[in-house]
Design a protein that fits this description.
The protein has four helices and six strands. With 159 residues, the protein is of the alpha/beta class. The protein has a domain of 111 residues. The strands form two sheets. Strands 2-3-6-4 form a four-stranded mixed beta sheet. Strands 1-5 form a two-stranded parallel sheet. Strand 2 and strand 3 form a beta hairpin.
Amino acid sequence: MFITKEKIMNVIRTFQAVAPILGNALKSGQLFNPKAELTEPEPDVLYEYDVEIPMGEGFFLTANIFRSKKAASNGERIPVVMCAHPYDNHLTPALKKTPMNGPPQQYRLIPQAGGRPKFSKLTSWESPDPNFWVSSGYAVVNINLPGYANSGGPPSAFT
């Protein structure tokens, strides 16, 4: 493997772009003490990970599904709040897949408007909080887009 001048320049440009964000996060203490409050999952939340959704193209997308245990045991049909994104939906504190089992890494680098957001340990980056939505009578379906995390198919943010 050859290291080209172009590859070196790409690394330098990436570092130059990230350095101010990382520097601010270090100076403010946010890197090690993110400004976000995590809550435990509500007892009524039933969570199913890596549910396969077949696509017509012959591959599967994977989704994490959160719903009420009570509604599931009663066979109730409930409305769904769904998100689909290229961020790995496994990167949650509940699955111990985040830095120091705390908020997702973005909360360590990006200051949040409005102070200190509060969300459950089941919540991945830019996804609905299952604690809020399930207790409000909805199910949450959090899908990995094709080619991201463990979803199959070619990577696409426009499926």
